[in-house]
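Worked example (supplementary).
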Amino acid sequence: MSPLSSLLGGGGFNGFVPIGPSYATGTATATIVSAGANTDGVNISCASLYSEGYSKFGKLQIDGDTVLCSGSNYVGTSAGSTSAAITGLFVPAGQSISFLAADAKTTYHVNYEVL
Amino acid sequence: MATYAIVSSGVVTGINVTTINPGEGWQLVPDGVQLGWVDDGNGGLEAPPAPTPAHRPLTRLEFVRLCITAGGMTSMLLVQAKADPYLEALWIMLDFCIEIKHDDEDIGPGLAALDALGYLPGGAAAVFAAWPTE
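After joint prediction of all chains, the assembly is encoded as:
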């Protein structure tokens, strides 16, 4: 069986997930890597979302599928801020990486490596 | 490595530093551009202007001291102003205040009245100009 770190992406000889040299950050909906630009796959080293209190959701999506979400689908259900993070995610060639923001109260940060 | 940005309504809402053109909506920008930078009106981007410091609410004592230091109100003028029947409403309002705000709707007319009646030799504008900030 392969080490979990290798399955998650990055992996490598020592089994760690390297920090990708590329990064993106923002507060509004954006396609960080389009499907067309992803010709050989992308490793997401780490990604985080932070939503202020009373904000709606922020989502990280791979080819339209949500893999990470902060905030709430319903504004005002929680006064507190929320955050989410993920590491070591491999995105196959031809798939897009997007951030979806319901309002401007969510910030995303993604470190990635274009293979 | 190149820096790309998404600019929405003249404000940078996304930064992407990468080896590839990330896709539609991103524009190539100079290195160093950051989130929140704004359109400079000449096709470029610049850091937003520093926010104007907010005026600090004052206690009644601080307000009177400001009238003295910035407005030129002497002790004698203060005593006279306190006894002036035209200013009675102002002092009543100040008695009700827990704190005095720069933009309070009664403070402008109140200082103007002090100024017009000769109790602020330095002028009401000088008091506003010297109002402490956060």
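Two points are worth noting when inspecting this output. Helices of chain A lie at 4-8. The radius of gyration of chain A is 15 Å.
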